Amino acid sequence: MGGNGVRHALRRPEFLRTALPWRAAGYLLVTGVSGVLLCVGLLLAVVVAGVLAVVLVGLPLLAALALSGVGYARWERWLLRLPDGTRVADPHHVPDRPGLSAWVRLRYREPATWRELGFTVLAAFLLWPVDLIVVACALGVPACLLAALPMLLLDGEQVHVLKLWEVHSPAVAGALGLAAPVLLALAAYPLTVVAAGRAALARLLLSPGGQELRIGELVSSRARLVDAFEAERRRIERDLHDGAQQRLVALSMTLGLARLDAPPGSPLAAQLTAAQRQAGEALAELRELINGIHPQVLTDRGLPDACADAADRSPVPVEVRFDLPGRLPPAVESAGYFAVCEALANVARHSGATAARVEGRYADGLLTIDVSDDGSGGADPAGGTGLTGLADRVAVVDGALTVDSPAGGPTLLRVEIPCTPLSPTRSA
């Protein structure tokens, strides 16, 4: 509920007939009750942590209190829908690793966590009395005036209105009842203004800042670019497979038929044989190019079968074992596949290994792929073995690459990518 929007709504003649005053009253009532519960909870937690701090047990609890604002801020952002229905974005980033420790480390480093803690303290010890007092005055006072006449008729002698004065006359009590709707209508204006002010304060402290918005947009744009890049790779692979490759196959067959019709041993037959051989070599190179762009087996059958296909083409014997809960996002499968291909290429070119092993598994939201060999080790990202480019490719999907390659071997390359499976079918 921005300032301009509130001023515009208050000036409208039909303001009292809209739901805005009641939404404002509900917002202040809920935030006031929440603030009371929050105040009690924080005080109890501080007392318990302070007592236990004598034996050092309460120190982790005191440290955890700094994160209490994260949960309460999420509740407050949800409550901001009550005044005018608008949503507030979450300013926090997604951890690059699954698990509680990664989440806690990230939250302690984010400025939004400390803004939320400040707002939580403000809501627990200052804002909730204001919220409840405003609601009590705006709704409670007219309700007491409206109940004056019924209470007097039930008592028969007198009624205490607002605990301030005694009323003995039914006429006076009836007049107070008639004044109640007028007072309620007048109170709707300051009630809405207070609710709008509190909502504006909450948005200021709980919404993403300028830098956080830019970072979030960069993350979103990077994800869009990754998806677009993968879609373009698949389109190029499909066009080459269905277009140029089929034409080369047809050309090779035509040259073969022409060679059969040429006189044996003639110069024409020799030229046709050479042309057919060159067409076959071009076809093989094109197939390798297509496989390097985006292999069809990866699209059709998924990461385990694609890695098994890459292992079959490796000059070094490779054992492949995967345990996945199903298909993964295309960008994740592509990054994992090309990581395995690059690792197997390094094994064949630089390690002198006699055997290699590829293992993939999925647990706790993390895809882990290990490529190990029994070679001489000594892999260095600065040595031009493609590890730097591979790390960049994995980082695009928020993954991480680690290499353990002591001199003399063995070498272990590990790729970790956070993701969520697309289907429940287990593949191995």
TrEMBL record:
Annotated ranges, domain Signal transduction histidine kinase subgroup 3 dimerisation and phosphoacceptor: 232-298
Pfam families listed in its UniProt record: HisKA_3, Sensor
Transmembrane segments: 20-45, 51-73, 119-152, 172-196
EC number: 2.7.13.3
Class in the EC hierarchy, top level: transferase
Every Putative sensor domain range: 27-206
Catalytic activity: ATP + protein L-histidine = ADP + protein N-phospho-L-histidine
Domain of life the protein comes from: Bacteria
Keywords: ATP-binding, Kinase, Membrane, Nucleotide-binding, Phosphoprotein, Transferase, Transmembrane, Transmembrane helix, Two-component regulatory system
Identification of the protein by name: histidine kinase
